[in-house]
Amino acid sequence: MATTLQAIRDKLKATEQRGSDNSNNRQNADNSIYAFWNMLDGKESGIRFLPDADINNTFFWVERAMIRLPFAGILGDEAKNQIIVQVPCVEMYNDGSVCPVLSEVRGWFKEPSLEETARQYWKKRSFIFQGLITEDGLNEQDKPENPIRRFIIGPQIFALIKAALLDPELDDLPTDYASGIDFRLKKGNKGNYADYSTSSWSRRSRPLSESEATAIDTYKLNNLSEFLPKKPSAVELNIIKEMFEASVNGEAYDPEKWGQYYKPAGFTQGPSTFQKSIVSNVEKDEIPFTVPVMEEIVEAVVAASVATNVASTPVETAVAGTDNRASDILAMIRSRSAAA
Known about the structure:
Layout: H1 5-18, E1 44-49, E2 62-71, E3 83-88, H2 100-108, H3 115-121, E4 124-135, E5 148-153, H4 155-165, E6 183-186, E7 188-190, E8 193-195, E9 200-201, H5 210-219, H6 234-248, H7 255-258, H8 271-280, H9 294-306, H10 313-319, H11 325-339
Antiparallel strand pairs: 1-4, 1-6, 2-3, 2-4, 4-5, 6-9, 7-8
């Protein structure tokens, strides 16, 4: 394999030094995403991670960054239940594209009264892996034909994976076919949230079994970047900005204006069908988000501290003498847009 353990270590360290700011959303017929978050507390699954088919990817994962936009229900729906629309953050594509949401939100971390709102709109990171299940803690009843599964890994588990890769005592890539190691994914509970902190790598390496090697030869590895959301066009970036401002303003989601671009998971034709479909059709590749992790918060604060193009005066002016935080933020956004 082209990628080496040292190459991964070098790139991880370089990313840390830079400050680490890095649908298609394809649903395969075999439903290959392994929903480990549905395991019961105390259960565990064994995973053998596999390389990315893209030989230009140093890592054996790709990073996804999504922004959650909460809305006060759907326009025309009297229930007014809060709904969430997820949109891609274009900064995940690492090509210099500017995210219209983060370009605004970074400056909010400078103002204590806006910090909570800033966290709400900050990008949520997850990491897409692929691999084989060596022990099924889910006890799946309807397993896909293709045993190569995808895993949507959150920051807590990713930190454990990353720490092991940086350990100088690790001699070989965990994905090596001959001397790789399995990952033990263990689900616990801390408060009201799932806790995976006791997950760990196996202490012993092992070669892939004959059946595992045959599965890879038969079904082939995936190019993980194909499972990232489609990069927004210029028109879609404007839609994201419009939706963001409406969300901050406490407005309802307007399917007539935005439905052809971005919509809530499970949304079909209108408010009357939405409530039924969202329960059964919630996106299968989404880990339920809980509270922002410290890594994301620190990243956001650091980003705010270096965002020299965002003046502090408009923020201070916007929040002075009012309790309406949404109006304050929107006034700041529109003021800056007019100045531009």
